[in-house]
Amino acid sequence: MTTAIQDSRSFAGGVHPPEGKHLTEDRGIEPGPPTKELAVLLSQHIGAPAQATVKKGDVVVAGQQIGECKAFVCAPVHSPAAGKVKDISLLPHAVLGRTLGVIIEAESPAQPVPPSFQRPAGFDPNTYTPERICDAVRNAGIVGMGGAGFPASVKIQPDAKVPKETLIVNGCECEPYITCDYRVMLEWTEQVITGVQLVARACGAKNIYIAIEDNKPKAIERMGDVLQKLGASAGIRVVPLKTKYPQGGERQLIRAVIEKVVPTGGIPPMIGVVVTNVATAAAIADAVVHGRPLTHRVVTVTGWGIARPGNYYVPIGTTVQTLIDHCGGPTGDVAKVVLGGPMMGIAIADLSTPITKTGGAVMVLTEDQIGRDRFEQRQTPCIRCGRCLQACPENLNPTKIAHAVKCNLMDVAESHFISACIECGCCSYVCPANIDLSGYIKTGKIFLARRKKKMPN
Amino acid sequence: MPQDLSISFAPHIRKPLSTQRVMLDVLIGLIPLVAAAGIYFRLRALLLIGVCVVGCAVTEWVSDIIRKKPGSLGDLSAVVTGVILGLSLPPALPFWTAAIGSVIAIGVGKMAFGGLGANVFNPAMVGRAFLTASFGMLMTTWTVPATIDGNLPQVGPENIVDARTQATPLGWSKIAIQDQNGAAIYSARQFLPILTGNIPGSLGETSAIAALLGGAYLLIRRTIDPHIPLAVLLSAFVFAAIAYAVNPDAYVQPFYHLASGALLFGAFFIATDPVTAPLTRRGMWLFGLGVGAITLLIRIVGKYPEGFMFAVLVMNGLTPLIDRLFRRVPVGGKPRVG
Questions:
Q1: What is this structure's pTM?
Q2: Which of A146, A167, A280, B66 could cross-link to A205 by cystine, CB 3.0-4.6 Å?
Q3: List of chain B residues whose C-beta atoms are within 8 Å of the C-beta of residue A431
């Protein structure tokens, strides 16, 4: 391989949690549990919820649109399987609490099989117009699959005012334990690269980087090899980054790869950068080339509390309970079930919560894995050791902000730039007093949003 | 599947490092100093440290009861304060005096402010300052180490009258400023006892090697940042060097200043107390530079032979202002208003 691997780049701050990827990294993408009943939420993204286009009792086919969008920042929703609409009701959602969703009863309980992606012979992204790519992406309901869930079509459309010159494809997967993106990079390499080329074509980016943490040498090598094979290595560079959390955070990633800083409160397009996740790129390729909507995704089921951890190809709408049962169920005492990784994931209480487009992992954690102090939320006084300051990738003063929030001194919290926090959780992770710093900061942000009337009480 | 799943904010894992572990590391780092005190001042030194530890622990325990708070002895911070206070005392100090110092250190220096993390001043130094002010005579009576033949003083002028007690190296250098005979106070032959600790002085301050060993452990374990010790030693060295350059007859060499007195012990174990030191890196440098400068000012032009305790207390008082001075700005710059 000829892809130049420079010294691994990085950013200041951050932490090194135990990686835990060995549990699932060598497990290929397997078909998930057989589809019986799916709970497809209408709000799986940032922006306005989609409006249901089907009624109770309707018959739907696989890939049929069941939720349309009227707003600009929105994404439609499709049925992953053929069947009947059993109900449209409020369903549990990890962040929103409860939100509308369509319950689909599948006509035949078949195991989902990943469809084969065929890169067209002599594929040339220039044969697709940016409008055509954006339309296909929008119609397929693709959102950022790394976690944020921002509608991809909005992100990738060209901007005349600030040209999107740089495209960074995020293959860092810096969250411990998660390996879904890693497997996608290894197994669906051609599809990812096709997607990258299409995104670059759509937004007009000239500088294209695929950033991968250096704890995934196989993915770095495979990506380089396939780029070479497809003759695309001239325009796309694979950049190995230092393994450090949160390397895959958008702002940290941009700083590491092109040494540019996104202004506080700003977004990457303001400096002409588009960041997209590898799984999103793969979904975009599928949507543009084959016209397939986003109805399935790869989910890592892992943690010390699950019998058979692995990477599964599951239809969106599968409940966490179904997934856990499919993986052999819990072993021993389960303390927490988390949607997402251990650093930023959301603990859920209701196992009927369905998988959404953004949910790359289900973690079944035992008390041992969490640690007793953390589990019991036993906090001791701040000893001002400053470890949170050193760990903060945004150069904030987490202890000052958190204690200001605790005392309801929001002006103090704001004077220490509470809004610049990216909620990565590094401060809470390193705190020897086990203070839930990022928890206080998140709470403070909600206080502020309410005060500014941007959020209901 | 149990239905009583726990819910909390992310992150769901934690670095296995508790306050207790941090304090335990400080205690491990103090072992060489305690051992040196035991070697040079024998059982009495260990008993004196023991009195301070017990005094601090009991005071903390009683304070917790009075304040109706859960017991906080488990975080070991009171033990750390006790050991550091003990190490900062002269070897012959009566036990009851040490006990009073312990009660003041924890009771006034720490618990009156609200316990661990809330105190403004280093508790051990508060206790020691109280003793210095109240029992000046006892606090400046320096016993000769048991390992020294009292008739053959290693440091200081040749003709010693009293074989049991002596001035400390810093005491002699203070006299030397008046007598203009700094070169006679220290000679190359006498540098070795200062390094090993075979000299009169407070229990923990005599041995430079023990302080460096303990400090190295703290740095390797990353219990402390190197910034404060570096800043303290750097500024102390610079000020000592200036004095030496101005008048080498009156003032001793900078290296003697660094190795004697509480500078090394304090730079690694007292000034680095996180509760009473600034949070930011730049703040730590300013704090350390201030501690070194004030210490040397007191040593060179002040009345006392040693000024580390006062330097730390003064800079402790300035810490909130220093934190205010060096406010952290986000990587992306200050957000635009509106």
A1: 0.91
A2: A167
A3: 14
